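Async update (no meeting this week)

Hi team, since we skipped the sync, here's where things stand on the single-chain job. The sequence we agreed to prioritize is pasted below, unchanged from the tracker. I ran it this morning and attached the output directly underneath so nobody has to dig for it. Comments welcome in thread, and please keep replies under the output.
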Amino acid sequence: MLFAYLTCGCLFLLSFILLSNAINLYKIANRWMGLFFLFAGFALLSAIAEKSTLHLQYPLLIPAMEITRFAMAPVLYLSVLYYTRPDVKADWKFILHFIPAILFIGVLAGLSHYLPPGAGLVVVLSLKAQLAGYWIAGLLLIRKSQFRHSWLLFLMLAVGIMIAVYLLASFVKWDSSWHFNSFLYLLCANAATYYVIKQRHIQHNIATPRLNTVALNRYKAQLEKVMREDEPYTDSDLNLSGLAMQMNISVHELSYLLNTGLEKNFYQYINEFRVEKAKELLQSEKHQHINILAIGFEAGFNSKTAFNTSFKKLTGKTPVEFRKTVVRLDTEGR
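Output:
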């Protein structure tokens, strides 16, 4: 039982480090990862309570610790998403990831009495499948983004071993595997702590990437060429890591180029090109029959609000007002 208690304490400590932003790097991603380790600690504490007499002393402890079971996998995935794509914006679709967790709260609240026989097994298998599926999805995100820091991959491998031990425990007698599994959890929790803290070693490189004036000017020219010739901004899903991949440079080098070399953030820079593209389309005779929202989408915006806001900010007019001006000038014989 000692290993289980030590692991539980380690998970809660790691969660505190991440949630309190003690690392001061990848803030959003670290908070999602902090939630994952917090929920993992809850899950282990629930197992400890079931194995010991704690559940007799505190009958509500296990249900309270189980509430977040189906939220563990989604928060792990979202943390990897923000590590690999730090510029991504929160979206209402994130809520969809937590629908199973919301439904599970209903089960814990007493609705389980209304479920058919065998539903408990379905819940357990669903939890295991969810953990495995989201972990694999997280690895695919890392591979797709070509994240250049190995610590995240090793962190995910440590988490993956913990998940694998949990999955395989179903096929081993509980009493015989408990101590061994707890020991493996402790090793993985310590490994995870090591790789989380290892973020500190890359902070200096991120703040001051090795871009001298010559390299900075070369990347400026390369970026301008990519934007003009390939028009990547017309892809509404374009993000910092995607553009960096097209330029074959790191995310942090591109971020430094934009922030220091051009004194703009990613979305300011991209939206300038999108607005120019929209102006071009609004003035085109071939696009006069196309509605304004469709033009916004063609220029790379993903919503009417984003299109109108960015367009007015940069031109002083809404897209509708701009089109009316163009039509009036054409009528007057521009």
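Quick observations from my side:
The chain has two domains: 2-204, 207-331.
The mean pLDDT is 84.
Reply here if anything looks off.
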